[in-house]
Amino acid sequence: MSILRTSVLALVVAAGPLAAKPLVTSSEETLARICLARTESPDRIVAACDAALTDAALTPAQRVELTVARGDGLSWQGEHEAGASSYRAATQLDPRSIDAWNGLGWALWELQDDAAAYEAFSTSLSIDVSVQGLSGTAGTGRRTGKVDAEEARERLRAALSIDPEYIWALRELGWSLFDAQDFQGAAEAFEGALRIDPDDVNARFGLGRTKIGLNDNEAALTAFNDLLADAPGDFATEVYRIIALRNLDRNAQALRESERMIAAYPDRASGYIEKGLSLMALQRRSEAIDTYREADARLGPNNAILYWYADALTVDGRFLEALAVIDRGLALDGADHTDHLMKSYIALELKDFETARAAAENCLATGVNDPWAHYYIAIALVHDGHAAEGLERFGRAITAGLPADRIGAFATELVSAGKYVEAAQLRLKY
């Protein structure tokens, strides 16, 4: 997602491309005023700041202000390393400059150094409260684990209480709520951002994503179509447009779009994944499996490709092949709880209850309290002769959010293991 501050975007757009002209165009302008006004193009801002900083008569405070403005100009033209250096120079000139610390935080964010950015924003907040300090610590703190998700949202709301139109905070709040699967709350945050700037690409994309989460796929498709009309070829938007089409059961169209994506981006996994999923929805399993096999051969080992490859093999009842594929995925960096969960499910189908239980425990060990992992452990325990433990684990699965329709399925597992009394007790309890 874009991380530029609203003020930054507004300044860049307002300035626009300018023809070459003298840096100082009237007797009332000075190099320092041009630098600090930040209304010229970024390269002219930097040039004005550099020239102004050669003035030996500057006060220490003026030198800090000019150095911060120089960092802004550098950052706005994408020179984030140089921008960070300028902000650092400003913090050395004045360790209590909030603008310098916040500027450094944003430059480090752009450089994806979240830990250092968090420290910069935290230093800013220790000096005084600002919307950027609150928002910056929320965003970087959430990503580094230094701030939990709820505290991050509290900081963002605090920033918005100071400046309700601080669009970066609204977007970040939207994504935080989206990650927490509060899709309605996320939609409201993104809609709030769009009331401020109807053209904000990040908020429009976020709103489309939340509409998928709310199962309003027609609205999602409209959002993605509109976004692609304004920004043709945006890869992420194209991917989620295909997902919306699949969710609307427009699988033939989704298949055509995914084939176009493969043609345009043959070295990216998403087109193959979407093609495979579209083929599966069209009951063309063999072609889907061939698609994943082709992607695996062309792209090399890829977690997402191997996951969906294993899934397709599982649906086709080819469990031993599926187990070999998911084991390859689990051997890669980037394997997550879903890969362990897939292995657990496959092992259950193979009646390998020891492996199923171990894989589900590995899923939970990633820190995700997945109800299906508890459920698979419960099934494995029942079939390994530990019905009482299995019932207890099933209760944990229900508490974690396992769908109620699994009660009957678990009763079936108990009966198949000869636990008739326990199956009856399960029905009485639930």
TrEMBL record:
Residues 1-20 form the signal peptide. It comes from the Bacteria. TPR repeats lie at residues 167-200. SMART domains: TPR (SM00028). InterPro entries: TPR-like_helical_dom_sf, TPR_rpt. SUPFAM superfamilies: TPR-like. PROSITE patterns: TPR. The keyword Signal applies. Keywords: Signal, TPR repeat. The keyword Signal applies. This is Tetratricopeptide repeat protein.
